[in-house]
Amino acid sequence: MGQESSTPVDEAIPPQTLSARSVEALASYIKEGRPKKILLMPTLSHCFLRLLSDKGLLLKLFTQNIDCLERAAGVPDDKIIEAHGSFARQRCIDCKTEYPDDLMKQAVHSREVPRCRDRKCAGLIKPDIVFFGEALPEEFHRNRGLPGLADLAIIMGTSLTVQPFASLPGNCAGGVPRLLINSERVGGLGSRADDVLLLGECDDGVRKLASALGWLEELEALFRAHNHGSSSAGQVSESKESRLNTLDDEIGIITEEVEKSLRISDRHAASLRQNLALSERTASQSPRSVLLENGGNDQFQPKSRICDPDTTRTIC
Questions:
Q1: Which of 30, 159, 207, 273 has the most other CB atoms within 10 Å of its CB?
Q2: Which stretches of the chain are assigned E, i.e. beta strand?
Q3: Three-state DSSP string of 242-284
Q4: What is the C-alpha to C-alpha distance for residues 158 and 279, in angstroms, rounded to an integer?
Q5: SS percent in the chain: helix, strand, coil, step 5
Q6: 107: which residues sit within 8 A by CB, 6+ positions away?
């Protein structure tokens, strides 16, 4: 990624490890227990959070993500509030006793159901993620007032639709700048005098901010350290190229559909004129024909009407 070729592989070339290049084949690969070391790669945005922490500027990171990528980027555990929990820890669902990481990994690899080590309890073990209907972690509620102490809030990569998490930016004091780095405007951000909107891809926005701060080289170095020397610039360039290619494909499809519709419309109009001409000839030969535009009084009740767009004559 970044330095390697971005040319798509020839579909005629079979996969070396997977049975097919599909999500289903990848899922089978995982379920078979073949991968033992799965790599999660933090993005440039995750590395920016780490950089803020390294510079002593990070008060607290509130996240709805459960993938632990903030930790993978090196953000300290005590700086993270995981509103929906994460896979970083696991515990018994009955007595709430924490369960060791090594035993959890062992159970997953051996496909065994982990249970509490207290034999009197023997409850099931579950990662500390919040399921639907479960209460948010107490740590979130204890810290949800922290935005009121901040002198800058950065909000990125969120829809801000799930409460109570969505209310956090609103807890910032008046006059405190709030920066939104996101694909779209959300949560009423942009309504205050000191709100700044940086709309687009998160990594693109982070690069712009880091460049303005003079931190871009540090950020790039941190990213490369976590991603085996890959360049975020190459990643961003490839992402843009991919989006442009997708857009070109969509435009091509739409253009083809429009042209197809126009061809159908032309054939339909020609057929309509032909039928109209036939109807006019038939009407001129029938004593029961009525031209409604002349206000005829014939008692004959027509069953259908055809409107000729060329003459605007309504004919029974």
A1: 207
A2: 61-63, 80-82, 85-92, 125-129, 153-156, 178-182, 195-199, 306-307, 314-315
A3: HHHHHHHHHHHHHHHHHHHHHHHHHHHHHHHHHHHHHHHHHHH
A4: 62
A5: 40, 15, 45
A6: 113, 114, 125
DSSP-derived pairing of the beta strands 178-182 and 195-199: parallel
Nearest Cα to 113, choosing from 123, 98, 128, 102? Answer: 123
At 158, is the secondary structure helix, strand, or coil?
Answer: coil
Are 160 and 171 a contacting pair, CB within 8 Å? no
Reported as a single tens digit per residue, the pLDDT across 180-226 is: 899 899 888 888 888 888 899 999 999 988 989 888 999 998 898 87
Give every strand in the sheet of 178-182, ordered side by side. 153-156, 178-182, 195-199
Could you list the active site residues? 84
Report the predicted TM-score, pTM, of the whole model to 2 decimal places: 0.61
Identify residue 24 by its one-letter amino acid code: E
In this structure, what token pair is assigned to residue 115? 């249970």
**Residue 58 to residues 23, 51, 180, 267: CA-CA distances in angstroms?**
37, 9, 16, 66
Burial grade of 142 (CB within 10 A; 0-12, 13-18, 19 or more): exposed
SS3 category, 176: coil
pLDDT digits (tens, 9 = 90+) for 282-313: 655 544 433 334 444 444 344 433 334 443 33
| Contact between 219 and 198 (Cβ < 8 Å) | no
> Are the CB atoms for 205 and 181 separated by under 8 Å?
yes
Cα(132)–Cα(236) distance, integer angstroms: 35
Token pair 């891809």 is found at 201
Residue with tokens 């990994």: 105
The alpha carbons of the chain give a radius of gyration, in whole angstroms, of 32
Q: Which residues contact 176 (CB under 8 A, 6 or more apart)?
A: 150, 151, 152, 153, 194
